[in-house]
Amino acid sequence: MSSRKPREQASQLDPYLPYLFERWAEGCHNIAGLFRELVERGYQGSYGSVYDSLVRLFPTGRKHAVDSSSKAPTLATSRQAAFLFLRRPEKLRVEEQETVAKLRQINPEVDRAYDLVQQFAQMLRTRTGELLDTWRPGGAPIAVGRSRERLREVLRRKWRAAKRDVMKRAA
Predict the structure, then answer these.
(1) Does 2 reside within a domain?
(2) Is a pLDDT exceeding 80 seen at residue 7?
(3) Is residue 122 domain-shared with residue 133, that is, in the same domain?
(4) Which residues are CB-neighbours of 124 under 8 A, at least 6 positions away?
(5) Closest CA to 96 of 78, 112, 76
C-alpha cells in the first residue's frame, strides 16, 4: 500500500493539466469538448474526473471574465438538441431553425438522425404504425449469424411488440 495520502497521489489527468490551463485561458470552457480533446491526445481517464477537476480548479466556471471573442460559439446541449429534433419544424422559432440547421451540418449521421426522428415522430403523431416496417432505420435487415440468432429473435419480438403498441394507440 502506498504511503502517500490520497490527494497527493498522481492522477491520470496530471500530465494534461498544462493543456487544460492553456485551453481554459483561451476561453474554452466546454468541459465535454475539453474531454474530447484530451482523449484525442491519449487521455484514458473518465469524463467525471475531468469534470470534477475543472470544477475544483475553476470554481467560477463560465462566470469568470474572459474575452468573449475567444470563445467558440456553443450550439446546443444534448437535451436542447433532442428537444429541437423532436419538435415539428414549422413550430420552431427562427433561431431554433438556425440551430437545427447548424446541428445537421456537423456530421452526415446527425443529419440522418434528424430525418429519422422526424419520420418517426410523424408516424406517432398521425398514428400510422403500419409504416413501421418500411421505415426501419437504415432499411438494413437485422444481421444474421450463428452467435446472433438469439439476438435476432429478441429484436424481432421487440419490433412486433412496438408495432402492436403503436397500432393499438392508433385504434
Answers:
(1) no
(2) no
(3) no
(4) 166
(5) 76
